[in-house]
Amino acid sequence: MKFGSVDNPATVDFTLPPTHSDTFALLAQHKAGADLEVYVGCAKWNKQDLKGFYPRGTKDELTYYATQFNSIELNGTFYNAPDKGQVETWKAKTPADFKFFPKVPQTISHYGRLLNVDEKMAAFCDAIVLFEEKLGVSFLQLHDNFKPKDFDRLAAFVKKFAKSVPLAVEVRNAEWFADATVSQKLYHLLETENAANVIVDTAGRRDMLHMRLTTPTAFVRYVGANHPTDKKRLDDWVARIQEWRDAGLRSLYFFVHQNVEVESPLLSTYFIAELNKTLGLEVRGPHGQLF
Questions:
Q1: Considering the chain, what percentage of its residues have pLDDT values greater than 70?
Q2: CA distance 144 to 170
Q3: How many domains does the chain divide into?
Q4: φ, ψ of residue 219 in degrees (nearest 5)
Q5: In this structure, are residues 95 and 124 in contact, taking their beta carbons and an 8 Å threshold?
Q6: How far apart are CA 224 and CA 234, in angstroms?
């Protein structure tokens, strides 16, 4: 994941910004709920990207991956919208506690720019609902040049999106975060429509760490910089999740990328172990030596 990469990560201040005050207000409404559910995984299961992760002789990468982690950020659906048969095949290869988090296809978000995409949107939703209990949250990632001037287009899409499919939204253009009035308008839309506000932690775009949740769900896309600071950054996230759980967080969906996707399973495993130790959880992760 090259988005937000920098030439020298050592020069970046990776300190997490404080939690947005409205996040605490929102979480307080859910404080009496059940304990935190946690899904942590990588962005893909492709053997070429995760070199060394798969034991020699592995015949089916998804089947093996699903024995190691409890979820996948399904980036592949961004490039190729799955049909119903493909979804059913993927579902059948995974254990009962596994969840998929499919990305809205680029034909809708990037090429279509959310205009005249009703049929494609319906086909995508009709397919991924077949994940049934293994469907996590679908997420919409907008192009870098999709700006606040297109707010009405985004609002219409979010309001029309199938209510049977949970949705998260990631905006990338810096203008969404540069003006508090613009940001608040976006956050109000997502909160009203019960859509999660994706948080991205990547070296070159610290503005995307808005720390404003719009549901009692934290959907975090963490991008390691292939640098020694990666683990310390994950330690900071463990502390932040503990703070949010105490405030009322109900769900955490945390997916690990790297600028060069090699050690994402190692970072995911480290994060799971630290979460379990610090928060007293039992999130499923790999056992034994990886790589």
A1: 98
A2: 10
A3: 1
A4: -110, 105
A5: no
A6: 9
Residues written for the chain:
291
Residue 47 lies in a domain: yes
Specify if 284 maps to a domain: no
- The answer as to whether 285 is a domain residue is no
The residues that bridge with 139 in the sheet, in sequence order, are: 103, 168
Q: What is the CATH number of the domain that holds 52?
A: 3.20.20.410
pLDDT digits (tens, 9 = 90+) for 70-106: 999 999 999 999 999 999 999 999 999 999 999 999 9
Please give the C-alpha separations between residue 153 and each of 46, 115, 117, 146, in angstroms, as whole numbers. 34, 7, 11, 10
CA distance 259 to 229: 13
Coil, strand or helix at 71: strand
Q: How confident is the model at residue 48 (pLDDT cuts 50, 70, 90)?
A: confident
List beta partners, residue 254.
40, 220
Instruction: List the helix and strand counts (H, then E) for the chain.
Output: 11, 9
Residues with Cβ < 8 Å from 134, sequence gap 6 or more? 91, 94, 98, 99, 100
Judge whether 260 lies within some domain. Answer: yes
Record the tokens describing residue 259, joined without a space.
Answer: 């600028």
Q: What is the pLDDT of residues 105-148, one digit of tens each?
A: 999 999 999 999 999 999 999 999 999 999 999 999 999 999 99
| Mean pLDDT confidence for 234-249 | 97
The strand ranges marked E within the chain are: 37-42, 71-74, 99-102, 138-141, 167-170, 196-197, 199-201, 217-224, 251-258
**Three-state SS for 91?**
helix
- What does the pLDDT average to over 155-170? 96
Full residue range of the structural domain in which residue 13 is found? 9-279
